[in-house]
Design brief:
Layout (H helix, E strand, L loop, with lengths): L11 H8 L7 E2 L11 H9 L13 H11 L6 E4 L2 H12 L3 E6 L3 H8 L4 E6 L11 H5 L6 E5 L11 H14 L2 E5 L22 E6 L12 E4 L3 H8 L9 H9 L4 H23 L4 E3 L6 E6 L6 H6 L3 E2 L1 E2 L10 E5 L3 H15 L1
Parallel strand pairs: 1-11, 3-4, 3-5, 5-6, 6-7
Antiparallel strand pairs: 2-8, 7-8, 9-10, 10-13, 12-13
Length: 358
């Protein structure tokens, strides 16, 4: 088990306190944030618009919603932005009020936490190690008429695996037949080149809700910005009533208005991940004592085969923080998630792993 209590990655304060060191000496592989950093276009926009902090944001965030709508080619009335995707998850759950929902394990913890706040009965669909932790067609028979809601993370967190498109379409069709709201979390899909997700299918599938995040791809976790989409504008309008006013700060709204047009940043990110993601995957696979899974996002899922080593703590002694997956339902202390970072940072991770596993 991890010695850290945080339910998420990125808590360098807790990790540094555990080791009795300064947080700025830790190299953080536990949070899946684009190492290119905040786009320069956004930095300049914030500097140029510091006066935004002196007045309330538009309570309806019209410019933000119009920018998101133009980016996805859908009406602005289909979109509800929030203070990070996690807020959107909670808003959606409180709007839909499912009585019995299914979540996939291992998976993102906030679906379950949000459902628990409304006393929803939660059914867990367990991914299997023998399937390589990939979602298979067996889930279709698990979808029954007594379910109101299904959460799927595509690509999954923490595995980084993306189910086959044909399977996702079959799941969507079965959910429609059974009256199940299908919630597709596409928080990391922007990292997969040419992967469009399901936003293009919303017009004829009002039972599908898509969650998106700008936090990870554009490296703005401190600003917080996510959103939910649905093809029924009246359903989105009803959902808006469950959201607190002014939940998005002015600079986060500004980020959503400008970063989606930064094509240079987007292409640079995809080039970096194509190069570094494959290189890190191959290098991890060559280290004795590790098994690594072929994730498609900006992070990799791995298993430590050395029962005699407490891997996360051993790496902390090398000033490197990785995400223990021991607190994910269905996993144990052998499993970890590592972000893909810059070449130099990835080299430091690999050197630390080789040292502690040698």
């Amino acid at each position: 088990m991890s010695r850290l209590k945080s339910a998420h990655g990125g808590n360098i304060r807790e990790a540094a306190a555990l080791m009795g060191i300064s947080a700025d000496t830790l190299l953080d592989f536990s949070a899946n944030i684009n190492p290119l950093g905040m786009p320069e276009s956004l930095k300049q926009a914030i500097i140029d618009n510091l006066a935004c902090a002196e007045r309330y944001p538009d309570v309806e965030y019209q410019q933000l919603h119009q920018a998101l709508a133009a980016h996805h080619g859908v009406p602005a009335s289909w979109i509800l932005a929030g203070n990070g995707e996690t807020e959107s998850i909670f808003t959606l759950v409180h709007g839909l009020k499912p009585r019995r929902a299914m979540v996939v394990a291992p998976g993102f913890a906030e679906y379950r936490r949000a459902l628990e706040t409304i006393d929803c009965e939660i059914e867990t669909y367990a991914l299997r190690e023998e399937d390589g932790w990939q979602l298979t067609e067996h889930i279709l028979s698990a979808l029954t008429a007594d379910l109101d809601c299904l959460f799927l993370c595509t690509p999954n967190n923490p595995t980084g695996l993306l189910p086959e498109r044909a399977l996702l379409e079959a799941i969507a069709a079965r959910c429609r037949t059974l009256g199940i709201a299908l919630i597709l979390d596409e928080a990391f899909i922007d990292f997969i080149a040419d992967e469009q997700g399901f936003i293009g299918e919303l017009q004829h599938n009002p039972h599908i809700w898509v969650l998106r995040s700008l936090t990870k791809f554009y490296a703005i976790p401190g600003l917080r910005l996510g959103y939910v989409l649905n093809g029924d504008e009246q359903a989105v309008a009803r959902l808006r009533k469950h959201q607190m006013p002014w939940s998005i700060n002015a600079f986060a709204a500004l980020a959503g208005e400008c970063v989606l047009n930064d094509r240079d940043y987007q292409q640079a990110t995809l080039r970096w991940l194509a190069r570094e993601g494959q290189r890190l995957y191959q290098a991890l696979g060559e280290i004795d004592g590790l098994s690594v899974y072929p994730g498609r996002a900006n992070y990799l899922f791995l298993r430590c085969e050395r029962a005699d080593i407490e891997l996360q703590y051993a790496l902390l002694q090398q000033r490197v923080l990785i995400r223990s997956c021991a607190n994910y339902p269905g996993l144990d202390g052998r499993y970890f998630r590592v972000a893909v970072r810059s070449e130099a940072e990835n080299q430091r991770l690999l050197a630390a792993l080789r040292q502690v596993l040698s």
